[in-house]
Amino acid sequence: MTFLLWIGWFGFNGGSVGAISSKENADVVALTIMNTNTAGLSGAIVGWLLTYFRYKKFDITMILNGALGGLVAVTAGPDQYDIYTPILIGAIGGALVVWAVPLFDKLKMDDPVGALSVHLINGIWGTLAVGIFVSDVSILTQLKGIIVVGTIVFPISFITIFLINKIFVLRADDDEQLEGIDAIECGMEAYLEFKRTI
Prior knowledge:
Elements: H1 2-16, H2 23-55, H3 60-74, H4 85-106, H5 115-133, H6 139-167, H7 174-179, H8 181-186
Helix pairs in contact: 1-2, 1-3, 2-3, 2-4, 3-4, 3-5, 4-5, 5-6
């Protein structure tokens, strides 16, 4: 799934440039795609190294989430950077994932796939990175944008999820989670190779 997202990011970020009707536009699209790729790659490498040094094991989920963290982090302005800056931005994104996943676990946040670490933390980092690395963009403007978006989105999301949860419970109970939602909802195992034996 991560590699499908990674490939899709080329179209998302490259397409965000808006046109390839001239050589200059095509060059910007190529730069955007290259910067997207290098940020994802550096995020994966840093996720791999930090996880290994921290736990003495290779954790494929952290490596893949490190890649996604790098991709998210560069998305705010991949066409605004030179070819080296996205390596740093993605590397910091990968490191933030390795730091944030255990933090959210410790806070007992229900985030089994690390989406908060990848998208929330690296969305904030990537937005700030534009203010840090792009000369004509103010970091204060970027920070103000983060605060405004958070102030609007968090309460609306919280109220919506709260109301939906009052109508029907969104979270599966512990027994359903152990058995697997795929078996309960669909009547079959989605991942037979992970079936536990008793």
